[in-house]
Amino acid sequence: MSTVLFVGGGRHQRRAILRVQELGHRVVAVDRNPAAPGLVAADVAELVDFTDVAGVTEVGRRHGVDGVMTVAADRAVPVVAAVAEALDLPAIGTATAQRMTHKLEMRDALAAAEVPQPRHASLRSEGDVEAALAAVDLPAVLKPADSGGQRAVFRIESAEHLRRDLAEAVEESPTGEAIFEEFVDGVEMNGIVVARGGEPVLLTLSDRLRPPGIGFGVGWIHVYPPSTDGEQLRRAREIAVEAVRALGLRDGIAFPQLIAAPDGRVVVVEVAARIAGGQMADLVRHAVGVDVVEIALRQALGEEIPDELALPRFSQPLAIRFFTASPGPLPTGRVIRIGDLEQVLAGEGVVQAETYLELGETIRPVRRDGDRRGYVIAVADSPERALERAEDAARLLEVEVE
User: Fold this and answer.
1) How confident is the model over 321-367, as pLDDT tens digits?
2) How many CB atoms lie within 10 A of CB 358?
3) What architecture is domain 119-182?
4) pLDDT at residue 214 tops 80
5) At a CB cut-off of 8 Å and minimum separation 6, what does 258 contact?
6) How far apart are CA 20 and CA 26, in angstroms?
7) pTM attached to this predicted model
8) What does R_g of the chain's alpha carbons equal in angstroms?
9) Among candidates 14, 16, 57, 17, which has minimal Cα distance to 33?
10) Is the pLDDT assigned to residue 218 strictly greater than 90?
11) Among 132, 190, 254, 313, who pairs with 121 as Cys (CB 3.0-4.6 Å)?
12) Is 3-91 assigned to CATH 3.40.50.1820?
């Protein structure tokens, strides 16, 4: 039995921690929140801010951990790399971690490899606005250079909008920097890639559908396989792999996000060096039969990953519908009653469902990933039918608000 250090204790960490324990390992988890679900699930819980590299390293050394990992949390990726290096454990390397979490460094690496991406500029203050507007046409997207969870992501329609929203985007960045990039209309796709010995292999590409309005960056529906087809899909598959290779990830799970534009272009939005949140690990498991948590665990322990674990075994159309406020199935307001999830789980084709709703919390309009309050996954013989089933099942959850 090995001891694994989890950096971060959020909801997605909890699911991964439970899986690692199922595989026979002991888990030590760090988070500053004593109520974090991952801390509750871990064998050993340590109240340490996961961004404190020295503090997390001390925890790992004290417990004699054999590997360090995280899921879903971009800010934890550089910490995992630094702690693993300090403890002489397998890691993706601090340089790679920085390149895959700081969007401007990522853009530079992709440009050097001629991987297609949106035009972009960096900003730190209002003094940079004119140069950014000269470099990038409107509409555009403004976001922190190194954050996650769709925090402070804005669609910018005018110079006035850019000046209004810049401070919030910069404030969400640990390095005080924002990225301003071309808004590419089209179908957004999530990819999951496994890199082994410097060779990336694409497991899945799936449509990432987004709501209208201020939450336009939040993925609230995932559909596999994607609606893009033909030559554009072939190119998207190539670009997903090229992007991971360009960023230098040799052994790890990568999460490239692409946009297939109506004019035939495919561009890279960004690439994360981690298992994605938003039930992407569940999507891969149900869609192609690959357990990316087990792969990430084995890589954290320095083990070889055989083909039978890393390559798709089948292809099953599915859809994930998140529980969100209108035009999703949830009402907005303070929750006073939550219905039984059993009727959702009994829906046709439903293979998994969960809700994070709590009595007394307030359901808000969708703006960031945290506004997703659960999900339902349905399968069918086509992606269109799977989505219909997921939508039908999601509407079965009864929630009353004040």
Assistant:
1) 999 998 889 999 999 999 999 999 999 999 999 999 999 999 998 88
2) 9
3) 2-Layer Sandwich (3.30)
4) no
5) 188, 189, 191, 205, 236, 239, 240, 266, 267, 268, 269
6) 8
7) 0.93
8) 20
9) 14
10) no
11) 132
12) no
